[in-house]
Design goal:
Layout lengths: L9 H14 L7 E7 L4 E5 L10 H11 L5 E8 L4 E3 L3 H10 L4 E4 L6 E4 L18
Parallel strand pairs: 3-5
Antiparallel strand pairs: 1-2, 1-3, 3-4, 5-6
Amino acid sequence: MSTRREDVDQELVEAAAQVARTRCRGDNHTVAAAARARDGRIVTAVNAYHFTGGPCAELVVIGAAAAQGAYALDTIVAVGDRERGIIPPCGRCRQALLDYFPSIRVILGRGEEVRAVPVAELLPETYVWADHQLDA
């Protein structure tokens, strides 16, 4: 179920946009992400591009949040450098977000279409890793 535009965490979008404007440089760091921790903190990060498949900004923000003791994230957004705006998560990030935080909301869209949706909506009939683990 999607939310109304007024329900979008604008502070989170601006935090990611600010990092994209001020910290993304060259080809190695082109996307910033910001996540809202359950305790209200905002954690930011940038991608680490590498031809071998460096991590996207969403994956880096998961690690940065953990390094700060924020293990529960409620909402996430990625923003491209050079004023490219909000960028939807790739398939790998969608799956990782679902596995780490099954109830996380993802902000996506442009202009009047900006909205926050549960990550599960981005992966219809998804594979849920935890559902397929054998109890030891």
